[in-house]
## 1
Amino acid sequence: MKAIIGGTGVDSLPGIEAERTLVSTPYGEVELFKGRGKDASLVFLPRHGSNHEVPPHLINYRANIKALALLGVTKAIGIYAVGSISNLLQPGKIGIVEDFIDMTGGGRNHTFFTGGKELVRHVAMDCAFDPALNAALLDGDSSLVTGGVYCCTNGPRLETPAEIRCYGRLGADYVGMTCATEASLAKEAGLRFAGLAYSINWAAGVEGNTVQFIDDCAIEKLKDHMTNICLLALGDDHDKND
Ligand code: HPA
């Protein structure tokens, strides 16, 4: 089984027939969409809920990832709206997330390993994203921007210009509010995971005095394109053990 996790602007998958399903996990119930017919091996999970009602800092990330694992998902791609800090990924462009900096501050339930009967484990994050899935994404679209570092803030507020200057100096190329938590839990759960970032604005203070978002029509086009390359990559990645 394979999954796509969608976020802002990606609340459903165009062209995929799917049925709403509730999955019970030890962390809570998760609403997701299971494909039917030719898409029966696909799960779509809208991380903010199907009506976009859950803000990034209140998403039940552990339940979401656990639900995928319980359904037998072994590989997943998360789609992330971001604001651009460096010139690497400019607004309107799509990139493969290479690494992340977690600036969420520890206020989220961000790990499965909480001690007690879960034991203590320190899962390596030197390769948080799956190289074979990344390669499959690039096969689907060789113009994807590679090598990006995602800075994950707690949100839901956007950043100040001083914060963005700070994150840029730390090595971040773009900023969002969900990827680090999702990717690290996916790694802890043993899922093969990749992240696609699409930029919808220059981050605060980078260009101009106010944050300006690209228009909805451009976002729709990016969303359709990302769905297609995710489906291609999930169906055709380079891991022969799959
Ligand atoms: N900051 C944080 N998250 C975001 C942004 C941003 O500028 N744009 C899209 N998601």
## 2
Amino acid sequence: MNDLAGKHIVLGLTGGIACYKAAELCRALIKEGATVQVVMTEAAAQFITPVTMQALSNRPVYDSQWDAREGNNMAHINLSREADAILIAPCSADFMAKLLHGRADDLLSLMCLARPIDKVSLLVAPAMNREMWAHPATQRNLAQLQADGTTVFGVGTGEQACGETGDGRMLEPDELLQDVVAFFQPKVLAGQHVLVSAGPTYEAIDPVRGITNLSSGKMGFAIARAACEAGARVTLVAGPVSLPTPRGVERLDVRSASNMLEACVDIARAATVFIATAAVADWRPAASANHKIKKDGSGAAPQLAFVENADILATIARSPRAASGALYCVGFAAESHDLLAHATAKRERKGVPLLVGNIGPATFGQDENALMLVDAHGVRELPRNNKLALARQLVAEIATRLHAPAR
Ligand code: CTP
């Protein structure tokens, strides 16, 4: 995807071992469609050379406010006016302190101070030793920077270059990339708490066998990511899938439909939106054997009896909070044919304001999908696209309905 297409980012490097990660971050930003202008402090150049950063960004690196290449000799003005954001990665403890005080004695800090504050966002990825990070001065600076409108990304935890272990590592380049992409997404779900159910469920027959389905969880995970990018607090209740948790999303892993029901009902008590994408097993074995069911040599297959699982979506959609409008419920319908008719009927049956239909066999496990949105006003189709792009469109559609005067 080209999530940063059209964005121009000034990538500022300050002194720290994490400068080695900035090289990869620069590549990742460009691969995502951004143009990148690298600006380095004198200390940063002790850790990585401007040659490397020029080669990766395909632009000469700036490191001095006295750079005569600029006609007006005002690199701080020219470079900051072109940017959509200044991203400082790594940002040292010293540079944080400098930003906080509005000091401007080198090109990068000068640019941060001279940038039009409403147009050019300042994003900071701190990187330092754990004691420096935990120091009250740094924490105070962090709080003040945030109060001044700076977006400060978190720090990683783990082994540090100095040999100590703790908080303060710069986030990995792919994590920072996701955070930058998220930063530019419209915050249409700010203040909402979104619950997403995703993936298949697994209904045990015995300790080694069970019934499940082909849902990969990709659509639900993409929706969780998109909702988080849109500014919501997101809780993802996931059946057995092997997908990484989207950044910023709280995840709860469950196995059976009963586990999923319990988790969802609990979280739905405080959520404001419930998006049910999970492919919940309709039935479970009436009894799960404690030991592996063995062949008895007669050739006879075991007789399995099934009971119906509770409908999680319908249960939650019937709750008083959903009925009062405090919780907006969105269902999914995975069908094999007659999508519109089935989706329309399912919306009524589940009692939800919005039902999203898709063709199951065409989407399970795939990276692409096509969606059909059915609500009280009619039908809207979202044509085939990758699941994250569709998830963002769906989030925008949900936000519109949340903000409509009468739901
Ligand atoms: N769903 C649920 N709990 C269930 C079954 C389904 O929460 N026990 C939710 C799904 O997450 C989805 C919607 O209900 O949002 C529709 O799921 P689907 O499997 O398409 O429909 P079913 O209710 O199983 O209906 P049918 O088998 O007739 O297609």
## 3
Amino acid sequence: MDKIFKGMKPSRRSFLTGAAAAGAGAVATVAKGQGAPDPAIVEQQPWRTFLGEGVDAYPYGMPSEHEAHVIRRSVPWLTADPISSVNFTPLHELDGIITPNGLCFERHHGGIAEVDPAEHRLMINGLVDKQMVFTMDDLKRFPRENHVYFLECAANSGMEWAGAQLNGCQFTHGMIHNVMYTGIPLRLLLEEAGVKTNGKWIMVEGADAAGMNRSIPIEKAMDDCLIAFKMNGEALRPEQGYPVRLVVPGWEGNMWVKWLRRIEVGDQPWHAREETSKYTDLLENGTARRFTWEMDAKSVITNPSPQAPITHGPGPTVLTGVAWSGRGTIPRVDVTIDGGKNWHQARMSGPSLNKSMHRFYFEFDWDGTPLLLQSRAHDSTGYVQPTKNELRAIRGENSIYHNNGIQTWYVNEQGIAENVEIS
Ligand code: MTE
Ligand code: CO
């Protein structure tokens, strides 16, 4: 590949020329230099010498053994115990916008509930005309919808408030996943129960040992929340709330209660632990922001990044990343490779869906000098992702949650990338 690109402009045409030449064998057999033939082409590869495994070797398919490094990872010192802990989506290994089910980050407060769907019930009580209990079979008789949504934990990037901390976008930004949910509009279940006129809030509660619960205003419950039982076409994974979880599009992940067992309708919020002592933002003046549900627009460059250095040397380089907003779509992402001296509009590719991840690319010819990479998302409301300093000027230094500041990666002459902060 090195030889093929040498002296060529990184245009679409030269990529195609290179590929064609490699296919013909003329250039690629000597591409490793010194005229020595490339053994990957001229020697028999072992996998050509025997028949492969037949169908059904893996009744549930697994990725190639060469992809064994593509896994969720945790930061052991972050939490005292894995039961109430978090691991992170390997964003730097993914492309497009969909997170594969096995790679969706996990956040549990009391471990993964081992729910038997046959014994699981979803109840609606409180300020309703008719208290109701649904089995999983009952739920599947309601009309269902399919939507792709991101789920971002409010604590995503929380470690980065005071300065650059964790070396890799998996750890700085990996408390997010983006899947297609199949579920029933929550509105349909609430209408079935009949919300009384003084029913202004719902409380959603999980069946896990943590019994996690949150208050949600009735307007949101009636708008776009889903009672989801499938992700990316198959049943929810146990760690994502099997057999049923709440989907609260665009709002902080903590509200997306997993193993959902109860919905109570009330006339005021419950002031649960997760909306008082946690998931509130302490400001400089000693007061706290509360009920900050919506996730602000945010983006991150996933490649290059600390876990995904540039290994090919100078020349054509693909920069890519993801962007999202809890308020709509992402029509535009700007990218800089020189720490903000020059900004370029990135190329968006893939579906642009409401409250979903978006994928962007920026192809450039790397001259081998150090880079300062940043991305800046614009959402469909006109909101522009702030710098970390802009955020701190308003929110102070005590916060953990809702850090959507611009991320910087420094890339040195060797292509090694590092988490740094410049603005
Ligand atoms: N629901 C229950 N029942 N128990 C939990 O511990 N964690 C919450 C939320 N729902 C949690 C829960 C938090 S803080 C987040 S960020 C999301 O689930 C994480 O969802 P995931 O594990 O599918 O990534
Ligand atoms: Co969370």
## 4
Amino acid sequence: MQTFDSHNRQRVLHELGLGPMWLLRDAEPAIPVAVVETRFEPVIVPAPVPEPAMAGAGSPVKSAWSELEVEKSKNLPEVQPVAPVVENTSEPDAWLVQEIVPDMPTEDMSQTSQEPAITTLSWDELQPMVESCRQCGLCQGRKKAVFGTGDQQARWLFVGEGPGYNENLQGLPFVGAAGQLLDNMLKSLGVPRGEQSYIANIVKCRPTDAQGKDRPPTADEIAACLPYLHRQIALIKPQIIVALGKTAAVSLLDMDLETPVGQLRGKVHQFKGIPVVASYHPAYLLRKPADKAKAWADLCLAIKAIPAG
Ligand code: URA
């Protein structure tokens, strides 16, 4: 099992932008809030309790909070505010609607039986298949498929929901403000993007609504795309998977979208023998920085869940 010393814990909290919050417990949080991608809802409803849901006495979260308070006299460097967001200013409620059905192409998009089963593909075969995939209507609006990025033998796999505006243009996952926060989380865990970590999404093409705005993927789109992620997982063989947001968690764990949030966070799930921890989507954390404490608890749980050896 990995250990996570006090220095690293402080670093994680700092990278997550938690430092000033602890210092100003009785005041308004000093962290600038950059509101961006509003489609992501919390995995768990924030509870008005003083301690994070998973923070029992003696838990890593609680001790980290205490340590950080001590740290206020030690001149921690200034927390850099997350860059302001420009993309997606649509109404939050719109993203709660899961039933939006995209315009389906009229032609038959099913792949032929001649193509090799996805479960046998190598990395070099899988990526072009994803990039030319026509298994669902999302391919119609695709500029670039977002295959995933990182260390192909990563210990940590982070799974998001699906590409947004910028990701669709660049073909890379998490390139916006939420990605900046995710990068900080990875760095603080010692697994910066590309080193011991891999980032992928449940769907590889950007889901948009009739107005061209981001939306969550439908059940059919998820079902069409999941085999690619499953193959990526089989190739990577990560030791821990962190599901970022409810869509990622329920899709990966094959749970109903209506699964109560309490059944997702705070426990170690399994995907084919690999531990899975559900946490918040970084875009949600940008909107609700107070819940970064719970995200920290999730990362602590993930560290503990990594198999020994
Ligand atoms: N949100 C996601 O879930 N994935 C991305 O790649 C970008 C934003």
